[in-house]
Amino acid sequence: MSTSLQQRFHAWIAAPAYPWVTGGVLTAGAVTELIAFPGSVTTTVGVLVSAASLMWRRSFPPVAMLTVAAGLIGFAGDVNLYLSITASGLIGCYSLGRNRVLHPAAAVAGGALGALCVNLVHINTWSRMELPVPALWETGSLSLFAESFLLSVVIFGAVMMGDAVRSREETRNERHLAQARLIAMERQQAAEAERAAIARELHDIVSHSVSMIAVQAESATYTTPGLTPEARDGFQQIATTARSSMAELRRLLGVLRTPRSDTALTEPQPTLDHLAELMDQHRAVGGTAELRITGDRVMLPAAWELSAYRIVQEALTNVRKHAPGARTVVEVDYGADRVLRLHIRDDGPAPGARPEPGTGTGTGTGHGLTGMRERAALVGGGLRAGAGPDGGFLVEAELPWGTG
After folding, report:
1. Are 30 and 84 in contact (CB under 8 A)?
2. pLDDT in tens, 236-259
3. How are beta strands 288-294 and 327-334 bridged, if at all?
4. Distance between CA atoms of 388 and 390, rounded to whole angstroms?
5. How far are the Cα atoms of 68, 108, 126, 140 from residue 115, in angstroms, in the given order?
6. Contact by Cβ (8 Å): 339, 401
7. What does the alpha-carbon distance between residue 93 and residue 104 come to, in Å, rounded to a whole number?
8. Coil, strand or helix: which one is 140?
9. Bridge partners of 389?
10. Could you tell me the pTM of the whole model?
11. Distance CA 355, CA 320 (A)
């Protein structure tokens, strides 16, 4: 059976109407069979109840006990075994195991006891019909109970099959839950690692700014003529506070330090002015990319510049990894509404035909889309990623800088 047919079959079985349809069809078949081969009142009632009760087996699983009991009573009322009783009895036993209405051992024991009772009723019927029935102590008497043995084996098989299906589904559900918890944990760890990486980068930016405050405040006490002693003390206090803040920043960085960041970042952090170099690097390794800039260049705060650069860098890295050879267009729009908009789209395969993006990067963080979303959220913006309107993959980010 092909995968698509299997999916359709499982979807049909899982549909709410499935037990009603199958129970109704089996009841109609039972009516037809009873018309063709009339039986006693006990048999007729047992056959109809056993078949009709199956319609409630999903909404009220304990009804399966009534299904099996009615089937055994219907069979006991006549020596002939109706096909509808066979089908409804098997489905009822399967439902008992599938829904764990009873412990499988209890269900099988109860079914075997019922089969023995049916066998004894048939033995009594055979004796009243003057058929040869050997006494229990005579040779061949044990063959009279072959019927109960056969029924018990069938009941055992149906109950165990239902219980096996239930156990398999529970195992599969537990595995899916474990995988979901693992994915959630990995995403949380990725987000935390990305935030730590962002903090380390921003540390360099803030440290530079604070150190400039300290230097300028201290220099002002010597370069500004006519300062009063109070003003000189004020500048010195500013310089002292700045140096104290630098020390606190270094301690903060120590808290965020991970094994891969034992060496502090020493290079200047990139800005949007470095996008041209980034595009050249992308082309140098075989990529095809075009940079389009609209609006007047605005010097944004350092956090905005770095976040925008890293988002573009990450998007290009994902293109190289998941859609090598695809043509990429990077659009940077300095909006008049004081919102920086980034559009990075490629003409590679659709998202469903490529691996899940965001498992590797060129920034050293290694968390793809998670990192891009964290960087957008850092500056109060948002990021969307998915299939583009013309195919391929599209990353859109909006970074409002008017309130930064």
Report:
1. yes
2. 888 788 777 777 766 666 655 555
3. parallel
4. 5
5. 10, 10, 16, 20
6. yes
7. 10
8. coil
9. 391
10. 0.56
11. 12
